TrEMBL record:
Source lineage: Bacteria, Bacillati, Actinomycetota, Actinomycetes, Micrococcales
Organism: Demequina litorisediminis
Function of the molecule: Catalyzes the first step in the biosynthesis of NAD from nicotinic acid, the ATP-dependent synthesis of beta-nicotinate D-ribonucleotide from nicotinate and 5-phospho-D-ribose 1-phosphate.
Gene3D superfamilies in UniProt: Aldolase class I, nicotinate phosphoribosyltransferase
Entries under InterPro entries matching the protein: Aldolase_TIM, N/Namide_PRibTrfase, NAPRTase_N, Nic_PRibTrfase-Fam, Nic_PRibTrfase_pncB, Nicotinate_pribotase-like_C
Domain Nicotinate phosphoribosyltransferase N-terminal: start-end pairs: 12-134
Cell inner membrane among keywords: no
Protein name (Swiss-Prot/TrEMBL): Nicotinate phosphoribosyltransferase
Nicotinate/nicotinamide phosphoribosyltransferase domain location: 156-320
Pfam family, one: NAPRTase
EC identifiers of the protein: 6.3.4.21
NCBIfam families referenced in this protein's UniProt entry, alphabetically: NAPRTase_put (TIGR01513), PRK12484.1 (NF009131)
Family: Belongs to the NAPRTase family.
Length: 361
């Protein structure tokens, strides 16, 4: 499901040169169909593949694209555009055809993620919006896919909302992460809008609002007996684990079970092993350990290779902003230009291959 923001996105979500080029095309009678490809020229050094995302929002945008009266009035106030062009915009609709990779497909440099064939003005004027929808969400999905591969049979949850570059980025980022392998999100609006399962625990502030950590654990478990994952590192992680054992024994008489604990700081490998030992010694073999704290695919790989008994991960900042590759070299070019660029890319790849083989000249 696309976001409501995509459906209502302004036609002015564009760069200045798009309407000026469109006005020139109209003045010159250049309205024949044209084909544009949206593709990524080259991968960031930290990537070997991409996972496509953002198509649903892009299509919703195209289907609903309109220049409102206010939009046209604003453009008229600039004193740049002729009356015939402004009149043209009042009835503007996107009438073209779109071919695209399905969301979630693996993609590589030079491959068209989206191909638009439409009258030249229509095909050109949507460039900025399409790059925004596809570029951002593909970057996040590609990072999330790497996290999913690192997790293996463990699950991970999108915790990125509070670190994303604004509420809309958090929303579409949650969708992209779920598409690429996240089991759930902490973003409640994303749960409502996209039907993504929600997941969350508690904050340190909740624990600190009680005089005794154990009272916080008791209250939360009683209020949410079906979803009691307790944050145990507010003061002392190991003592927190012992408090969970104590509270779990008390609540068992009420038919309440603790589902899991979360560690959000410190040496996650060492602490998770020690916490597992404390929980097991207390008979809490079924209580899962969730880890968070600035995780990415590299830290998760290191933790699992170290044998950390972590059952699930909360992944936030590093995924939510695709921290190691925050931007893609996505472009939107006419078919002829794209073919030339592709030929240049292939030539460079050929040279690189020969250099690696020791036969470059």
């Amino acid at each position: 499901m696309p976001s409501q923001d995509a459906a209502s996105a302004s036609a002015l979500t564009t760069d200045q040169y798009e309407p000026t080029m469109a006005a020139s095309h109209l003045a010159q009678g250049r309205t024949a169909p044209a084909t544009f490809d949206l593709f990524v020229r080259r991968l960031p050094p930290e990537r070997r593949f991409l996972v496509t995302a953002g198509l649903a929002d892009a299509l919703e945008y195209l289907e609903n694209l309109r220049f409102t009266a206010d939009d046209v009035d604003y453009l008229a106030s600039l004193g740049t555009f002729r009356t015939d062009f402004l009149d043209y915009l009042r009835g503007f609709r996107f009438t073209g055809d779109v071919w695209a990779m399905a969301e979630g497909e693996v993609a590589f440099p030079g491959e068209p993620l989206v191909r638009v064939t439409a009258p030249l003005i229509e095909a050109q004027i949507v460039e900025t919006a399409l790059l925004t929808f596809i570029g951002h969400q593909t970057a996040i999905a590609s990072k999330a896919a790497r996290v999913a591969l690192a997790c293996g049979d463990r699950t991970f949850v999108d915790f990125a909302a509070r670190r994303a570059h604004g509420p809309e980025a958090a929303l579409t980022g949650a969708r992209a992460a779920y598409l690429a392998g996240a089991s759930a999100t902490s973003n409640v609006l994303a749960g409502k809008r996209y039907g993504i399962p929600l997941s969350g625990t508690m904050a340190h502030a909740y624990v600190m609002s009680y005089a005794d950590e154990r009272d916080a654990f008791r209250a939360f478990a009683r209020d949410f007996p079906e979803a009691s994952v307790l944050l145990i590192d507010t003061y002392d992680t190991l003592q927190g684990a012992r408090h969970v054992v104590e509270v779990a024994r008390e609540l068992a008489a009420e038919g309440i079970s603790i589902l899991g604990v979360r560690i959000d700081s410190g040496d996650l490998a060492a602490l998770s092993a020690q916490v597992r030992a404390i929980l097991d010694a207390g008979g809490l073999h079924e209580v899962r350990i969730v880890a968070s704290s600035d995780l990415d695919e590299h830290r998760i790989t290191d933790l699992l290779q170290a044998g950390a008994p972590i059952d699930a991960f909360g992944v936030g900042t590093q995924m939510g902003v695709s921290a190691d590759a925050p931007a893609l070299s996505a472009v939107y070019k006419p078919g002829r230009v794209r073919r030339q660029a592709g030929a240049e890319t292939l030539a460079r790849q050929g040279l690189a291959a020969r250099a690696q083989a020791g036969v470059a000249n």
